[in-house]
Amino acid sequence: MKNLFHKETHNNRMLRLLPTVALLTLWGGCLTSNAEEPRFVDHSLLIAPEYPCTWPSHPFPRFAIIHSRTIGPASVYNIDTLLIDGNTGTQLDVPPHSVARPELKREKSGPLGLAYTDKIEPWQFGGEACLVDVRGILDKAPKGTSPLIRPEHVERFEKQHRQVRFGDVVLFRSDYSDHYYRPLPEGRRFIADILDRKAPGYPDPDPDCMELLGKRGVLTLGTDSASMGPLPDLAEPTHYAGLRFGMIWTEGATNLGALPSTGAFYCLLGPKHEGGPYGEGRAFSVVGGELPKRLIESCRNKRAIDLSPTLSPQLPLTSPGIGTGNHRQVYLKVDFLYSEYLDMWHHGHLMDSMTGTHLVPPSYALPADGKPIPYAPEVRGWLEEYEKKYGRRGSSTMTTEQVPIGWTCGEARVIDVRSLVGSTQQTHWPASPEITVEHVQAYERTTGNLRPGEVVIFRTGHNDKYLRPQSADAGLWLEPLQGKSEGWPAPGPDVIAYLKEKGIRCVASDAPDLGGVDPGQALMTYWALGSREMVGVEFLVNVDKIPVQGAYFLFAAVKVRDCHGGPGRAIVLY
Question: What is the pTM of this model?
Answer without folding.
Answer: 0.92
